[in-house]
Design goal:
With about 375 residues, the chain is α/β, with parallel strands linked by helices. It is built from 12 helices and 15 strands. It has helices spanning about 1-25, 40-60, 75-85, 135-145, 165-175, 185-195, 200-215, 220-230, 250-260, 280-285, 300-310, 320-335; strands at about 30-35, 65-70, 90-95, 110-115, 125-130, 155-160, 180-185, 240-245, 270-275, 290-295, 350-355, 360, 365-370, 370-375, 380. It is elongated and about 95 Å long.
């Protein structure tokens, strides 16, 4: 009898060993990862993989399994790799990185792609933009404008391939502006356009006329007044109290230089720009300060960079932080939703606090609640 009992127990134990791995696999969230692993952007792709590994380590759960595939930054290769992931039964994919890699993905049904792009126009229906888009940034700028009761704002946007994104962001954020201008990046044309926007020639002539008037006047203090006027470049104000410059790097600095040339100073008007990822060169550009911009949480970014550097002995790119957060976001959603329908969770209204900030999810859209910063006298300060 005891021998029969032992055999039954052994059979049950062996059956458990056979069935348990299957149950475990069924409960896993399987995520595809589409990044360039070969080609000119391979370093970027490999850092994103490292960031996902770091996220899995910090989550400390075997519930998520990652399946990386190479895109070679090529839309045809991206499509091929996406099909291979679908054949593995995967219905949620992080990536691809670049907007250009998305063009064929609408051919694949029943898969949701969380792309790193910050572009939101003309996306395939199965692609969700997870980058820091213009709406997220303008929502943050709008909050600053309201707090400071700024009434007259103008937009300066370069004639580049993201001008329509800016227009969409302005519409969706409902930020108020008195006028939008689109400028040429060629320096000579840019300066001429800024002169027109700021009525520079009229204000300059106003100064000349006032000096002439004083010279011909009987004013006993005219010499002192003329000396003070000669220190100026213009007389008269511009018809705005803040300017939002949707630009970056050297192009941004060119716009600011043109504004300074036309006697518009950040000491008198709010200079606001888009996310600069804490560009250190702005700290030494004293003439352009104070300058304001929305961005990710700087403290969290530095903590992530330090952790990544300790783990992999290299400085991570900014998309690594986003990929780290996306794995955390998916894990969070997997705890709240049925595993097989986790891709559908992006249609429901959710919020998730990551390293970047708070993700707001609804109707297959992701926006970010960002922080707001000011650089003044070479010092970066968090406003909110």
């Amino acid at each position: 009898m005891n021998k029969i009992f032992k055999i039954i127990i052994l059979l049950i134990y062996n059956l458990f060993l056979f069935v348990a791995p299957s149950i475990s696999e069924e409960n896993k969230v399987r995520i595809g990862l589409l990044v360039p692993l070969t080609g000119e952007n391979a370093v970027l792709g490999k850092q994103i993989i490292k960031a996902t590994r770091l996220a899995l380590k910090d989550i400390n759960s075997d519930k998520i399994e990652i399946f990386p595939k190479d895109t070679q930054s090529d839309p045809n290769k991206t499509l091929k790799s996406a099909i291979e992931l679908k054949q593995l039964g995967i219905n949620l994919i992080v990536g691809p990185i670049f907007y250009e890699s998305l063009i064929f993905l609408d051919e694949i049904k029943d898969i949701t792609f969380l792309s790193f792009t910050n572009k939101t126009l003309d996306l395939p229906k199965n692609v969700i933009s997870t980058g820091i888009n213009s709406t997220s940034q303008l929502n943050t700028i709008k909050r600053f404008i309201q707090q400071n009761e700024i009434k007259k704002t103008i937009f300066l946007t370069p004639n580049l391939n993201y001008d329509l994104e800016i227009k969409k962001g302005i519409t969706e954020s409902k930020i108020k502006s008195i006028k939008q201008y689109f400028y040429d990046n060629e320096p000579t044309k840019l300066t001429k356009q800024i002169e027109q926007i700021t009525n520079y020639e009229i204000r300059k002539q106003n100064l000349i006329d006032e000096i002439t008037r004083l010279e011909n006047s009987d004013d006993p203090n005219k010499e002192k007044k003329i000396k003070n006027l000669e220190k100026k470049y213009t007389i008269g104000n511009v018809n705005f109290d803040s300017v939002i410059i949707a630009d970056f790097d050297e192009s941004l600095k060119s716009v600011i230089t043109s504004l300074l040339y036309t006697d518009v100073s950040p000491k008198d008007k709010y200079f606001i720009t888009f996310n600069q990822w804490f560009d250190k060169s702005l700290l030494i550009e004293s003439a352009s300060q104070p300058i304001y911009y929305p961005s990710v949480n700087k403290e969290n970014l530095e903590q992530f960079e330090n952790k990544f550097s300790r783990q992999f002995n290299e400085i991570p790119n900014h998309l690594s932080l986003l990929s780290y957060d996306l794995i955390g976001l998916i894990y969070y959603l997997s705890l709240k939703n049925d595993i097989y329908n986790i891709d559908k969770a992006f249609k429901a209204k959710n919020s998730f606090r990551g390293k970047i900030g708070i993700f707001d999810i609804e109707n297959n859209m992701i926006n970010h609640r960002l922080n707001f910063y000011k650089i003044e006298e070479g010092v970066l300060k968090e406003i909110f």
